[in-house]
Each structure stands twice: as structure tokens, then as C-alpha cells.
Amino acid sequence: MEMQGSDRRQTQAETNRTQVAERNLSRIGLISALSRVPDNLTSWSRDIETVPFGSVRATCSSAGGHTVPHGLDSDVLFGITNAFQIAGCPADNTIRISTAELITLSNLTKSGRLYQQLQTSLDRLLHSTYFLYETWCDAQGNAMRTLSMSLLREVSSVDKQAPTRPDTRYSATTQLKIVLDPVLANSIRDSYLNELNPALYRELSKPMTRILYRLLSEYHLNNEHSTLTLEVHQLSQLLGFPTNYKAARIQRDLSPAHDELLATGYLKEVTYTGRGKTCRVHYAFNDAANISSSTYATMLTSRGVSEGAAMSLLISYSEEDIIQACQRFDELETRGYAIKNRGGLLNDLIQHPHKYAVRTIESEQSTPKKSRPAKSEPDRLLPETPPAEPSVEDRQRTYANLLSKRVHAVFTAEEENNIRAFYLAGTLNTFAVQQLCSAKNPQQALQHILVSDTEA
Q: Which Pfam families does the record match to this protein (predicted)?
């Protein structure tokens, strides 16, 4: 069945949504990458010294008969941290979100079975306690000496259909209230985050691949080298493999994840040297595939697109669309095309590439015409005027699709009306509204705007 227009736009928006990973979670490996663990595995302890990642000294214990977090739990926690960041990092460390929204933010596919897996996963995350020794870092890179933390402090649910249902299982209509541990919440609030390539991340099909990708991306974040070497047994511990796994077993279990990362182009090569306890894995990164959405935003803003418009374009269009439009824009500029509105032209190149079909002199000469002297001139484009500014209807759609939920989560109804009016009038752009929602004191920031508008 052919995908309808709204479904196609939703899929594209999900593909390009910014994905961020809390850096400690990526580096320490608090959640095992294994999809299954023994029912009696309720604790673990590890003491790992790695050159690129530093010391990892941690223990985990689970209560209430739950196993330690593993597999899908990492994706669910990833969705929670992204939901917290999108909500503007509320001061009470609490997010309110539907099960369907959380599944989407976790990059999982909705199904009846998955709702029950989500419930089990949240139970494991809630009932696990970690003790960390000089391992958890703050945004300045300083390691906390000792730390006891949970990942979640509270999980509660409400379902409008509950009176007609005989059980308490999650469904698509379940609304969740999730309270993050203050240590984790503060790390996200302080932006100790690694921005991932959203299109690449969405291609990864297995929890283990996504965990390995976040681990490798953490190393690659501030490292100028395009290679990484790790002892295989150290990597297996960071991924939560049993300590009795031999090198050959580890290589075999990692093979599907490596294949995916090679297929997406994130990695150029994976090789091994040595045997047994001396076995090492060598990663060669394909830097061209590791561009984050912030880089694409810079590509747009450096060519005259406003920050707000850039964010909207990144949500609505693929990286390939952005790259092709920027390349075409640069070609036009080099050829001497008269550009009256740089940002407007690039915006239109992205949204309406078909309007800019090139008619070269060679193609014109293929059609019989009266002879005329040859000229040397830039390629002629069909549109001769820059695109118009967004209409009120366009702004209304953008506000409804992109901003309304986030504004509603932070402001009162009266404040929402003021923000919406400013946005529709063009006083605030998309970027400004998102910055307003993320401000440390959103109400004070909004009041400043209201006072400035009154004085004007």
C-alpha cells in the first residue's frame, strides 16, 4: 500500500529528529548489550582500565526479583533522556509522555508485544542501583569520587481505558510519568551530550548495534584520529558480556553489529590482531558518515538561512536533500547567478528542487532553432525572483506540528497564547521559541520579550 503524504512526512521527521546520547551512559556501559541474560543475573561488578575511555569501576544490583538492565532497556533509556531534553529539562526531573511517544523516541517499532516489553524494561530500570567510583563525569570532565544512583526514581502510569480493562498492562493509550535520577537529569541539563547522526542511527536495527555505535561515537567525539584500538576483553566488559566469554565467542557475537556499522558507512573497516587474552579489535572510522545534524545546520546558516528556518528544514528534509541543495547553491554562486536573497534561494532549492532545472546552451542547441551567436553565460534557472516569506498559514502549520507540544509542557495557557501570537506575527522564529522553552527560567525570558514588545 502506498504511503500517504502525512505518513511520509512523519517518517521523514522521525528520521531527521535530533538524537542525543548522555555521554556517561555511552562510555560506562551501565546496560548490557545482550538481548537476553540469565534469570538469576541480578548483579554485576566491573573494574576496567581503557586508554581511550579511562577507568570504569562500577557495580549494579537489582531488587524485586528483576534481572540487571539489558538489551532493549538501553533503547528505552535513550528515549527517556531524549524526551527529557526535548521537554526542556524540567526542574522537577519529571517527564509526562505516552507509551507510543516513548517508543518512537526510543527508535522502536510500535506493536502490541512491545508495550509489554516497555513495561518490563521500565521496571528493570527503576529497580536497579549503581555504585560508581571515580567513573561518572560532569560536564567539565571532572569525575565524581563516589556515587550511588538509580537511573529512574519513579515510574507511574494512567490509562483512560483502565475502567474497561481487567489488567494493568500498558497499551497505546497509557500515559507515563517518569522521574529521572537527579544525577542523570543534571548531566542532561548541563548538556553533557553527544549529538548523533539521526539518519544513520535510525538505520541500526539491533540494541547491541546501537549501544556499540554510541560507545564508539563517544570516543570519536573529541578525537582527531580516525582509528581506535581496544582489547577485545575490555570491550566485551563495557558491553556487558559474561567474563568467561573467550575472544572467538566475543568476535562472533559482535559480528552482526559490525556488519551493520560497516553497511551504513559509519565504519570503514574492522580488523582483529592477536589471540586469546591478547586479542585486539581495530576500528577505522569513515568520517564522511559521522556528520551530526548541527553540522548540517551550519551548512544552512552559513548560506544565509536563519537558525529557525534551518531547524525546521532539518526536521522536514533528509541530509541528502540538504547536501544536494547546498551543492547546487554553491554552483550557482560560483557561476555568477544574481542572488537577491541567499537564505530564501537555498530554502527554495531544498523545498522545490524541480523549479531549478538547468537549461544549458548545449541542451538548447539540441532543439532546432534559428542560428544565433554563441554566448558564454551562467546557466539560466526557471525562477528569477526569490521565494516569498512564509505565510501565516505556513507558520500556523509549523507551530502546530513542531512547537505546540513543547510550549504546552512549559508555559501556562495565557503564556502559550502570547508565544503563538508572536510566532504567527513573525516576531519569534522557530529557533527562538525552542530556546525560550529550554531557558533556565522560561517565564522570566518570556516576560523580557513581552516588556521589550510593549516598549517598542
A: RPA
Extract the C-alpha cell encoding 413. 495557557
Distance between CA 294 and CA 296 in Å, rounded?
5
Question: What is the mean predicted confidence (pLDDT) over 117-139?
Answer: 94
Contacts of 218 (CB under 8 A, 6+ apart): 21, 23, 26, 27, 53, 194
User: Model confidence over 303-324: pLDDT tens digits?
Assistant: 888 766 776 677 667 777 888 8
Give the contacts of 454 (CB within 8 A, at least 6 positions apart). none
Number of H helices, E strands in the chain: 20, 12
Radius of gyration of the chain, Cα coordinates, nearest whole angstrom: 25
| 143-181 tens-digit pLDDT | 888 999 999 999 999 887 655 555 568 888 899 999 999
Let me know if 77 is exposed, middle or buried by CB neighbors in 10 A (0-12, 13-18, 19+).
buried
Distance (Å, whole) CA 402 – CA 312: 8
Determine the straight-line distance between the first and last CA of the chain, rounded to whole angstroms: 54
Contacts of residue 406, defined as CB under 8 A and 6 or more positions apart, other chains included, come to 86, 87, 88, 433, 434, 437
| Contacts (Cβ under 8 Å, ≥6 apart) of 402 | 312, 315, 430
Q: Is 445 exposed, middle or buried (CB count within 10 Å of its CB: 0-12, 13-18, 19+)? A: middle
Sign of CA dihedral 437, 17, 305, 292: positive
What's at 350, amino acid-wise? I
* Residue scoring higher pLDDT (143 or 381): 143
Which candidate, 196, 19, 405, 314, places its Cα nearest to that of 306? 314
Does this model's pTM top 0.70? My answer is: no
